[in-house]
Amino acid sequence: MRSYSIRVAVPDDLDGARAVMLDTVYRDFGTGYVPHWHGDIIDLAAAYLAPARHTLLVALDPDGRSVVATAALDSRGPAHPPNPRRLAERYPSGETAQLRRVYVRPEHRRRGLARRLVDDLLAFAATDGGYRAVYLHTDPAVPGAEPFWRSLGKVVHDEREDPGGGNGVVHFEIPMGR
Questions:
Q1: Among 18, 70, 73, 134, which is most exposed with the fewest C-beta within 10 angstroms?
Q2: Which residue intervals of the chain are DSSP H helices?
Q3: Of 8, 3, 4, whose CA–CA distance to 124 is shortest?
């Protein structure tokens, strides 16, 4: 059986990566495309290919024809608002590697792709040398998301515990040397 290949995205991968991302925000998040939250999805090259300290990884199906999973990293810490001020202060832009867009098409889940992608992003962050922390946030309503991230890192804030429940987002720090 042939395995999935993972690589740094090239321009020819961007349409496939964008399709995985948009399908995820519509199907799993139920929000659809929201420009304020998902603007990077439209211009993946500017968001992840052009900046030296950012990257976009793709996983290709065993035939090497289709992008079936994505994972990105950028140097922007969590913004306040909408995130709590203390998180924005703890994870400042420039010093924080933020994991983003770790999405796997449903029919390719439970095969270790997300974990492999995250391991490659952590290696990228460590090689950069300028990051002091790896941060991400997730929507726990997305099937499998919260247990996956709990298996890799530690919760630094769970908005469900805030008065009024906040946005329900769970914030994580992932050890770089995992």
A1: 18
A2: 14-27, 35-42, 44, 85-90, 113-128, 145-152
A3: 8
Task: Give residues with Cβ within 8 angstroms of 159, minimum separation 6.
Answer: 84, 165, 166, 167, 168, 169, 170, 171
Distance CA 40, CA 88 (A): 19
Which among 98, 91, 106, 177 has a CA at the least distance from the CA of 145?
106
Number of other residues whose CB lies within 10 A of the CB of residue 21: 23
Angle between helices 35-42 and 14-27 (to 10 degrees): 160
Rounded Cα–Cα distance for residues 142 and 124 (Å): 26
Is residue 177 exposed (0-12), middle (13-18) or buried (19+ Cβ within 10 Å)? exposed
Angle, CA 115 vertex, CA 74 and CA 55 arms, to 5°: 20
CA 132 to chain centre: 18
Q: Measured between alpha carbons, how far is 127 from 5 in angstroms, rounded to an integer?
A: 21
Average pLDDT for consecutive 10-residue bins of the chain (178 residues)?
89 98 92 90 97 97 94 96 94 98 95 96 96 96 93 96 85 89
Place of tokens 């290696």: 123
